[in-house]
Specification:
This protein is of the alpha/beta class. Helix content is 33%, strand content 17%. The strands form 10 sheets. A 7-stranded parallel β-sheet has the order 5-6-4-7-8-3-9. Strands 12-13-11-14-15-10-16 form a 7-stranded parallel β-sheet, with helices on both faces.
């Protein structure tokens, strides 16, 4: 059940259905895959791939505009330090939206009968669908971004209803969460509509002729604070306890605690729960979409959750309406018997998320470590499980020390079997381990794993405090380092810093808890990017057997030595080696002057752009058939991916404005221009009309639009303007001044991908990692050079970068590879290359210029050298002096 050998490591790469994971041996892929997956998923993956490859043919204009904006547009977002980073949605998130839109726009799914057309198993019956309205279930691993999917679905529905005349979707949204903890988390994202503007959810105004940002008018209503002031544009965010009291569920013989089933419920007094009849909310509205987070609660039609949604739909039906669409997102859409919800249309399993480093890797003790653990013969709970607790604390301490270097706090999470033992473990930890004194948070939960709000005996203020502390435990300001819970905080407690889980109980099938829900509390990552992270899982034999049952889902559980003398299960940490007494950090330190930028962009020069004087190769104007003219597909000029599609139902509907706008926005985005749209649009339009084809063409003509969608025409327009704008606006000051100094010993610790490294004696850093074989080879060479005092890999965390002009004329940043300090006091910047590209000579020329600039104003001499792999491995220099004499290609 291993992943396919071609399964990609990047979570952004498009996944072909033929290489997706399935629960069987690879030899059965061709014969059994469709029968072993969620029944609707195999066929839908194939259909959605065709939909994607076609450029979203069949989707409405609104849906196509949004899909292209979200997934085929480059998004550069600002960071706190003033730099930009490229944001990209995970493919799992993309596939979820593409599938929902395909089902709605292309297939026109109305009910269960339409969904059953995609059944690969042949076993689905109508009786397996409890709802009578349109409902899709999205299965995504914990930590893979389900909330972002909800935000995209919400925006799509809003704009679809606004812009498409016959849309059956909604601009009102009921967002339901299973408990207060999840609601608090969702509220942080939705407050002030933050998630829609922080992420590139809303297209720029002008894209395909719409004022997207101005039209996105929504009001957020929280819990009981519902004040409808208009019939559309509402988000009702509530937890299920405001729909019904969770304790109103009828007792069942399947409950873990069957006392209430046999003896009846105890009478209760006042509770902190309040109820809102959501049917009252929809009294004054005619459209509603339901979005469920952590939606595995609704599997049973007897549940009040399901009945509440059903009641809302019935109220809408009385007005001739119905719930427009229900979208459920969860990592575990399963019934109590383990069967998956038949409405599941998307599946991104945990095994794929772990492989792509979207979540942490679970690590278990190896056999040698587990054999040392013994359940003591004692009636006292903490004495009985002392070995397990001690191993958990030991693993947590090692992780805590490593992450503390990065200003992160590792969290220990312990699960017990009842509230008394929960309290006993807390007291034991605080009295036995000084670093846990007053640092243990106890959360008493109800039988369903949620913080008790109705019967805890705690006041509302105490419950609010518990929720706040549980949610904020990642923060360095929080005093808590460990959290202990009865059962498990099954969903919603999605803090990122859990590094160690200790389980002191077994989970029977009747508990309705799945191993992924248990591991899920520790799966979310602490650091961005593709760095491997780990969560150590320790527990009794029964608990470990329960956890290891997740291997049936394809998850490979790594087993490692654990205990005092083993290495911590943490990412690779690169830091200044201050704890190494054998190093003189001050002597090894290297100071690098930071110069003011030479290269800048003068935006006002755009006014001097003249289309008649642009140099380019004209494009032949072709004649296309009427059928070809109706489907106009634009592709990215470098990747070939579809970026913009226009389907013309009527040839008279041809409108060149959106195409000119597309060209203009693409040029501005790729050049990172922040202003000048009107000026540029006014230049692109006459260029296309009078220059591009070597003749004047009619812009409001379908054949012209079809010509413009040809890759040669798109590339000519975009590349010509980029080149000419760069020639006009990119300027070199001609001088530079020292504005700061970088000292390597002041570099903050950072994490790196698990890769090859050497332990250096001549660097301030504890490790020198290599992004390739040549870098490690070169670092080893520097270690042996007697004329080298110290050196360092120029990590991103060092922040030594040079601005330069790329081959296409745009401004970019260049990070040289190594910094070397020689015995004669000189500092040499080294660039190592295995394969050269067009920008290498330009980078070297910029580095040469930097050295000239700095040597005019610095008492220390700076120089550079270029080292190519072929020559380095051929000539084998034995000193840095020999290297400088032999490798002067770009000097």
């Amino acid at each position: 059940m291993a992943l396919h050998s071609d399964f990609p490591q990047s979570p952004h790469e498009i996944l072909d259905p033929s290489i997706r994971w399935f629960p069987a041996d690879e030899s059965l892929r061709d014969t059994s895959m469709d029968k072993l997956m969620p029944p609707l998923v195999p066929q839908l993956r194939k259909k959605v791939k065709e939909f994607r490859d076609s450029g979203y043919v069949g989707a409405t204009d609104t849906s196509r505009s949004l899909l292209n904006w979200w997934f085929n547009t480059r998004h550069l977002l600002p960071q706190a330090d003033g730099t930009m980073f490229e944001f990209q949605y995970y493919f799992a998130q993309r596939e979820a939206l593409e599938t929902i839109i395909y089902l709605y726009d292309v297939v026109g799914v109305q009910d269960k009968y339409d969904l059953m057309r995609f059944d690969s198993s042949g076993a689905i019956t109508t009786g397996m669908f409890d709802e009578t309205w349109r409902r899709f279930v999205v299965k995504m691993a914990t930590g893979s971004g389900k909330t972002k999917v909800l935000s995209l679905v919400l925006a799509w529905s809003f704009y679809h209803k606004l812009y498409e005349p016959d849309s059956q979707l909604s601009r009102n949204f009921l967002v339901i969460t299973p408990n207060i903890i999840v609601l608090d988390r969702i509220y942080k994202d939705f407050q002030g509509l933050r998630i829609f503007f922080d992420d590139p959810v809303i297209p720029d105004n002008g894209i395909d002729g719409h004022d997207w940002r101005n039209d996105f008018q929504l009001t957020l209503h929280i819990q009981d604070e519902v004040r409808i002031t208009r019939p559309t544009g509402n988000i009702f965010l509530t937890n299920i306890h405001r729909v019904y009291s969770g304790d109103d569920l009828a007792p069942s013989p399947d409950d873990e605690d069957t006392m209430e089933y046999f003896l009846g419920k105890k009478p209760t007094g006042a509770t902190t729960d309040s109820k809102v009849d959501l049917g009252m909310i929809v009294r004054d509205i005619d459209e509603l979409m339901v979005l469920n987070d952590e939606a595995h609660h609704i599997h049973d039609p007897r549940m009040a959750w399901f009945k509440s949604i059903e009641d809302i739909n019935n109220r809408l039906k009385q007005k001739g309406k119905q719930i427009s669409l229900q979208v459920d997102v969860t990592a575990t859409p399963k019934h109590n018997n383990g069967a998956i919800f038949v409405q599941t249309v998307v599946d991104y399993p945990l095994v794929e998320a772990i492989s792509q480093n979207v979540v942490k890797h679970p690590v278990l003790p190896d056999a040698a470590s587990r054999v040392k653990l013994t359940e003591q013969q004692s009636a006292k709970y903490t004495e009985k499980y002392a070995d397990y607790l001690h191993l958990g604390v030991t693993e947590w301490r090692k992780a805590y020390a490593e992450h503390a270097r990065l200003d992160k706090k590792a969290i220990l999470f312990i699960m017990t079997d009842d509230t008394k033992n929960c309290d006993d473990v807390a007291a034991y930890l605080e009295s036995s381990y000084a670093d846990l004194k007053d640092a243990v948070l106890v959360i008493h939960t109800k039988r369903n794993g949620e913080i008790s709000e109705a019967r805890s005996g705690k006041s509302k203020e105490e419950l609010d405090f518990l929720r706040q502390q549980a949610n904020d435990i990642d923060s360095l300001d929080s005093p808590y380092k460990a959290i202990i819970s009865v059962m498990v905080l099954k969903e919603g407690w999605d803090v990122r810093n859990v590094t160690t889980i200790v389980g002191l109980r077994a989970y029977a099938a009747k508990s309705n808890i799945l191993p992924e829900q248990t591991l899920g509390r520790g799966l979310r990552k602490m650091y961005p990017g593709g760095v491997e992270e780990y969560v150590s899982v320790v527990g009794t034999d029964a608990f470990m057997d329960f956890v290891e049952s997740i291997q049936a889902e394809g998850v490979v559980l790594e087993h490692r030595p654990m205990g005092k003398d083993s290495q911590p299960n943490t990412p690779l940490v690169i830091e200044v080696d201050t704890e190494n007494t054998g190093k003189d950090i001050e002597a090894l330190d290297i100071e690098i002057p930071v110069l003011t930028p030479r290269i800048y962009r003068e935006y006002k020069n755009l006014n001097h752009l003249t289309v008649q004087q642009m140099e380019f190769q004209t494009i032949e104007y072709l004649q296309f058939s009427e059928k070809e003219q109706r489907e106009i597909v634009f592709k990215d000029i470098t990747t070939g991916k579809v970026t913009h599609t226009t389907i013309l139902d009527n040839l008279a509907a041809a409108d060149c404005r959106s195409v000119i706008a597309y060209f203009t926005q693409t040029i501005m985005r790729e050049l990172r221009l922040v202003s000048g749209y009107d000026i540029l649009y006014g230049l692109v339009k006459p260029f296309v009309q009078n220059q591009l084809f070597g003749q004047t063409v009619e812009l409001e003509n379908a054949n012209t639009l079809r010509n413009l969608s040809e890759l040669a025409a798109t590339k000519t327009v975009i590349e010509t303007f980029k080149r000419e704008i760069n020639k006009l606006t990119v300027q070199d000051k001609g001088n530079a001044e020292i504005r700061d100094t970088i000292k390597l010993r002041q570099t903050r610790p950072f994490v790196a991908k698990d890769q090859g490294y050497i332990v250096s004696k001549k660097s301030v850093f504890n490790r020198i990692i290599g992004d390739g074989h040549l870098e490690l080879l070169f670092a080893s060479f520097l270690e042996d050079c007697t004329d080298v005092v110290s050196y360092a890999k120029n990590y991103l965390a060092v922040h030594f970068t040079l601005d330069y002009v790329k081959a296409d004329g745009s401004i970019s940043n260049y990070y040289p590879d190594f910094i070397v300090k020689l015995t004669n006091g000189r500092i040499v910047i080294v660039e190592t290359k295995g394969r050269e590209d067009l920008d290498v000579p330009l980078k070297m020329e910029r580095l040469k210029q930097w050295c000239r600039d700095i040597n005019q104003i610095s008492s220390v001499e700076y120089d550079f050298v270029f080292v190519d792999q072929e020559s380095f491995e051929h000539y084998h220099p034995t000193s840095f002096r020999q290297l400088e004499q032999s490798f002067r290609e770009y000097k």
